[in-house]
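Troubleshooting entry. Yesterday's outputs looked truncated, so today I'm pasting the complete records for two proteins to confirm everything comes through intact. If either block looks cut off, that's the bug. Protein one:
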Amino acid sequence: MHRREFLSLALAAAAKGAAPSIQFPTEVRRRLSVSTYPFRSVIVSPARSRRAAASDSAGQSRLTLAQFADSIVERFNVYGIEPWSAHFEAIEPEYLRGLKSSFDHAGLRVVNIPCDVRVHPCGSTAEQTATQETWQKWIDAALIIGSPSIRVHAPAGQSNDDIACAVDALGTLAAHGASKNIIINLENDNPRSEDPYRVLKIIEKVNSPFLHSLPDFCNSMQIQDDQNYNERALAALFPHALNISHVKDVEIVNGKTLTVDMNRIFTIAKQTGYRGYFSMETEGSTDPYQGTRQLIAAAVKNLS
């Protein structure tokens, strides 16, 4: 079936009331998650060479994703994990089933998979097909390990107003997500292609219950070093968020440390009725364990 035909059918199904089936916990610490992205110096990444992945510059052994997950509940007293795509050793079903077993044994649920993969959604026809195939493999991976969603990057256009390709590519992906009950999330991340208002335009144009925003507390500070701008952006994003938000108090831009008032952002999230997960994504800390604990403490204080 041609991509546009598949998209049309999926959007027609959405119009009939199809929506993600997901239940969120209400106990505060069960709404919290540890993102593995800040632990890049701790967890093995298969993207690295075998030698580099096996040890860091100090010769200290690194943990596999499963080994890192095993200590999350004990170290942080939270029950969610957000595993970064680069920390997966493979996306074959056998490995994924083993990883799911490890997460279950550790008492963890997966809240989202941030997918940072090389794709060309606005390239040639062959590249567009390959992009969909790659993204869809991560949807299948999410299904196996019990993640309700994946996060992908919005394709850039010729200008901030050029969203045609992004709408086409992400609409097709959201349609596939709908067929598997897997949500697709877009983050206010890349300052050029993922300006929060461009993300919103794409979501509103696709108009699928399986395409949502992933509000990051700090990322929009990369666009304007202005807390008022950042909070307005988050107030616009949170109504379109369903299951995941990134908690962060610091963003480092060109060596400059930019901070936000997390108390005010948690208030925005609550005022918009957001009921999903909050994943800790500490930045700027030399010790990701300490930084993550500090974010968890702030989240517990605000959500209790």
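Protein two, checking that the full record survives here as well:
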Amino acid sequence: MQKIYESTRSGNIRKSAANAILEGLAPDGGLFVLEQSAESPLDWRALEGKSYAETAKAVLGKFLDFPDEALTEAVSLAYDGKFAAAEPANLTALREAHILELFHGPTCAFKDFGLQMLPQLIRLSLEATGLKKDILIVTATSGDTGKAALEGFKDAPRTKIFVFYPHEKVSRIQALQMLTQEGRNVGVAAIRGNFDDAQSGVKALFGDAAFLKALDTANIQLSSANSINIGRLAAQTVYYVWAYLRLVDSGVIRAGEKINFVVPTGNFGNILSGWYAYRMGLPVNRFICASNANNVLTDFLETGRYDRKRDFLTTISPSMDILISSNLERLLYGASGGDHAKVAGLMGDLREKGVYQAGGGLFSTIREIFAGACADDDATRQTIREVFQKERYVLDPHTAVAWRAFEDCRNRRSELLGGCRTVILSTASPYKFATDVLTAIDGPQETADPFAQMRRLAELTGTSIPRSLETLQTKPVLHDGVVDISQMAASVLKALGGMRS
């Protein structure tokens, strides 16, 4: 049966799954969502004992309508040999919780799960639609999406990619991952501003008539690799199901028993993927949304009021330094029963006033399954230090925010956890943030060299530096542009002239 996607803001905008993936963002500025009448439960019991690849094929089949053999091939091309172990994810018991390690991919961040798969979905979508244009991926990153997207789409046929990141607001290792990126079809630039500026700028390109006309003249269609693209969220839903099944397979929980997930998130895409698994029938008690000092999501989940009119803070967990959480719009759509007018009104309030209020039944529905907690930088450093001292386990700053949120709920709001087993998502390797992790564990360092700090962290903790990060030290910088927000369109068009796909 064909899967139909519609805009969160209008039931009149309807696309096939392939077109939703290729277009990325709906023409009215909304996000593509599977129409609710097409949602169906996942037979997760049939997946007990299955591999990650087998689980991925079953979950993706709930979002997409590509042939079975095409999905099997896509999963194989996305994951086989790309991750450090036979299974892309790893589940580690740590005191009262389990850590779901999602950083063993080629760029050492959870974004690899979506961005190794998305190029395969783009390829299948081009075949399904017969589109003759090439695809231009333009994306904004708060740190990890950029490198994962660049690596995933590097030299992909009929595809070009350009990434914007906030200048001097990502870790040095994150920046070097992008600045040294090879590939004949890739471009990278820093923008003078923060991630919200970059994200808003990319969204504006989708409505920029002159920019779109220039692309059309070059026979190119614009798309995105941010989590506004439904293809990424579909791929990320898989590891929630896989983690649950591993707990069942290992006897930690009984089949059908509910669990909690604690998710560090800024743009709300990662945690929303888990909610999609819940909508498919995965037994979940609660999703704990973990935020850093940019705690707009924590406040929303406490009050129903989303207010981006606050200071933007630069923290040691930069991938979460976000005040405009785009994917929350998809939750509003789902929790409201697919009320396009409600969603459009709330998004209009956010655009015009910088604030909206989700009240009544909508907020009650969200509160039944979501809760929020946050941690500032001091609490994050303390958590990294204490967990290493007690458990000899090294957390990156984003995972430390999630662990702190778990402790907050366990110690002060235990009713939220409901006595259920908890899985904490670990979203990045600590070596991507060696400076802050090492300082938290060992105090201020004499050297500011991030590679010397990685070596010291490895020596101190007995862990290994990921090869893909260690080799950055000898790679040449290939991209060094810094542009104003007003120059984003021009910088992309200029770069296209030197790209090949």
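Both blocks look complete. Sanity check on protein two: The chain has a mean pLDDT of 95.
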